[in-house]
Amino acid sequence: MSRMPSSYALSRTAGAFVIGAVAVLTVDQPLIALLHLLGFTPIAPYSLRATHPWGVPVFLSLSFWGGLWSIPISWILDRLPRNLIYYAAAVCLGALPPNIMTWLSFFR
Q1: 80-90 pLDDT, tens per residue?
Q2: FRET label pair with 20: which of 50, 75, 77, 98, CA 20 to 30 Å apart?
Q3: Which pTM does this prediction carry?
Q4: Are residues 80 and 37 in contact, defined by beta-carbon separation less than 8 angstroms?
């Protein structure tokens, strides 16, 4: 397997970060809003409550971590063939670990 040029790898990594951060704002937080509206969770979407240690609003902190999490996901998925394994890995890596970390964290 040949190595990618560093500019390509850097742009793919930056793109993965942006997509992950935007996904939190456009998918995760609206889903939290729906669950909150239906009474399934006390967590409010787009919370402005400050997180520690820098006092950043919760939803921005979650967006940052969503961006970081998407980087290793993209690295793993780039190495898989585009078949059923790819899509199963995308669902498992994109849905399970970030949600488990959110449930176990003190972000909310």
Answers
A1: 999 999 999 99
A2: 50
A3: 0.80
A4: no
Residue whose C-alpha is closest to residue 77's, from 13, 26, 28, 33? 13
Measured in residues, the chain has a length of 108
Domain that holds residue 80: 9-104
Domain annotation covers residue 94: yes
In a domain, residue 97? The reply is: yes
Residue 100 within any structural domain of the chain = yes
Give the mean pLDDT of the chain.
87
Task: Give residue 38's Cα distance to chain centre.
Answer: 23
CB 91 within 8 A of CB 48: no
Q: Let me know if residue 53 belongs to a domain.
A: yes
Domain count, the chain: 1
User: What DSSP letter does each residue of 28-86 carry, written as one string?
Assistant: IHHHHHHHHHTTS--PPTT--PBPTTT--BHHHHHHHHHHHHHHHHHHHHTTS-TTHHH
Q: How far apart are CA 24 and CA 22, in angstroms?
A: 5
